[in-house]
Amino acid sequence: MSGPQRLQVDPATCTADDLAVAAQWLTSGGIVAFPTDTLYGLAVNVRDGAAVRRLFDLKGRSARAAIPLIASSTAQVVAATGALTAREAILASTFWPGPLSVVRDAPAWMSAEVHGGHRTIAIRVPNHRVARSLAEAFGGLIAATSANRSGEPPAAAAHDLGVIADDPRVLVIDGGRTQGGAASTLVDVRGTQPVCLREGAVAWDRVLNSLHP
Asked: Does the pLDDT value for residue 2 go beyond 60?
């Protein structure tokens, strides 16, 4: 991997075309730091097990930990992972784009390193133009875990990335400061009753109300 280590974009006008270099970086097995609707995240190609392992190494994180995913749109989620169930469709139409992640069965094409052998994934469409444009430019789902070393504070701006930004495996998309706040709410509606696996930015009662109006 070689090329520019930092890409400056306007979060209000950024398009997929503006992120072609970042998409190529992902295709080449690199790691991309980018802004989301909560904090900065780290993206890799979820088909590339070696890239996922590099991400774990960068973060100092256990390889058994699953990595959350993002998509550019609900249509991209369906194309990559299959049709949504009725309840998943309600959550998608109500909360996407936004900070709510839905647990789904991992597709067979995805690198097992992404889900740590758990065979499930958590996916959402973020409410941030740069994040969605990156997934659109790449042409598929991307891993999107917090941009920090494990145990260290997450980054709300590119200048908060510290040693991560200096790593030659990382391309930084500087899209300004993010709004911060809680992580996405994590929901599993595959069973008989909806389950909240992580409290987050979307209140659980709002999720339940959407499913049982």
From this structure: no
pLDDT at position 4, please?
A: 53
Whole-number Å distance between alpha carbons of 95 and 81: 18
The DSSP call for residue 62 is -
User: Can you tell me the distance from the alpha carbon of 194 to that of 176, in angstroms, rounded to the nearest whole number?
Assistant: 36
Residues 6 or more apart whose CB falls under 8 angstroms from that of 10 comprise: 175
Q: Are 74 and 96 in contact (CB under 8 A)?
A: yes
CA distances (Å), 85 to each of 81, 106, 124, in order?
A: 12, 15, 15
Torsions phi, psi for 168 (to 5 deg)? -65, -15
**Burial letters 104-139, b for 16+ CB under 10 A, else e:** bebeeebbebbbbeeeebbbbbbbbbbbbbbbbbbe
Give the predicted TM-score (pTM) of the model: 0.94
Q: Are 36 and 126 in contact (CB under 8 A)?
A: yes
Residue 30 has which token pair?
């690199």
The boundaries of the domain holding residue 113 are 6-211
Is 1 a member of any domain?
no
Q: What are phi and psi of 104, to 5 degrees?
A: -135, 160
- How many independent structural domains does the chain possess? 1
Q: Which CATH number does the domain housing residue 42 bear?
A: 3.90.870.10
Q: Is residue 103 part of a domain?
A: yes
* pLDDT level of residue 104 (50, 70, 90 thresholds): very high
